[in-house]
Amino acid sequence: MKVVILAGGLGTRISEESHLRPKPMIEIGEKPILWHIMKIYSSYGFHEFVICLGYKQHMIKEFFADYFLHTSDITFDLASNQMTVHNNASEPWKVTLVDTGLNTMTGGRVKRVREYLGEEPFFLTYGDGVSNVDIAALLAFHKSHKKIGTITTVNIGQRFGVMDIGKDGAIHSFREKQDTDGSLINGGFMVMNPEIFDYIDGDETVFEKKPLEQLAREGQLMAYKHGGFWHCMDTQRDKNSLEEMWKSGAAPWKVWEG
């Protein structure tokens, strides 16, 4: 089962860093946050990734092309033009990097990678959020309800729009936040069946608008409620907070060994 990661946006809210590199390449503990997200999925046995690129895409491509240079000791024999990799620290990953356009909206990016996904369900998440969500339990929940989509919902302070969710877990609608809301938001870490592509028109489609709203109206969208850690890297303050957690040696999203 493949993991699709949205990594093509401009990241304007964290422009202190994103003017130099794409937001998913901003580092936490000397590793891009994109790497942390991939490690979360990989720790549950999901090693195949399709990454939707856009802004400064060459930097993400170069990171994976030169992965050994970032993670291993290297000897260069210039006389014989040979390179020896020591203490190989590679990952069991297969990574497909797709140019989904500079200004394409989130839904359009998802549709542009359809040819790499086949007719199987797939994971979908954003390239700027980490969590200790139980990926295996999320997938089991998605399979159990047999709807088109599942969103991991998290509770957080009121910076985003919110969802109305029934007692059975069905998502009924999306709306702007209110002072009385309990702050349940879309935390990413979604699972989608291939029928989702029928809900996406093209490059101008915002995934969080028409596709998800229509799924909700049709009773085809369910919420997997996550009560544990979740944190997005939306601002420089968020980045600094995640960095401090990592340096403490007790980063809540580090669910892998080593």
Blueprint of the fold:
Blueprint: E1 2-7, H1 15-18, E2 27-28, E3 31-32, H2 33-42, E4 48-53, H3 57-65, H4 67-71, E5 73-77, E6 82-86, E7 94-99, H5 106-112, E8 122-126, E9 129-131, H6 135-145, E10 149-155, E11 162-165, E12 171-175, E13 184-186, E14 190-192, H7 210-217, E15 221-225, E16 230-232, H8 236-247
Parallel strand pairs: 1-4, 1-8, 4-7, 10-15
Antiparallel strand pairs: 2-3, 5-6, 8-14, 9-16, 10-13, 10-14, 11-12
Explained architecture:
With 258 residues, the chain is α/β, with parallel strands linked by helices. Helices cover 26% and strands 27% of the residues. The strands form five sheets. Strands 1, 4, 7, 8, 10, 13, 14 and 15 form an eight-stranded mixed sheet that branches. β11 and β12 form a beta hairpin. The relative contact order is 0.18.
Task: Tag the structure with descriptive keywords.
globular; alpha/beta; 16 strands; 258 residues; 8 helices; two-stranded antiparallel ribbon
Task: State the major sheet.
Answer: 8 strands, mixed
Beta fraction = 25-35%
The mean pLDDT is 90
Q: Structural class of the helix and strand makeup?
A: alpha/beta
| Inertia-based shape | globular
Number of strands: 16
Order of helices and strands: EHEEHEHHEEEHEEHEEEEEHEEH
Distance between the termini: 24 Å
Report the uncertain regions. Answer: none
In DSSP terms (H or I, runs of 4 or more residues), the helix count works out at 8
Helix residue percentage: 25-40%
Rg for CA atoms? 19 Å
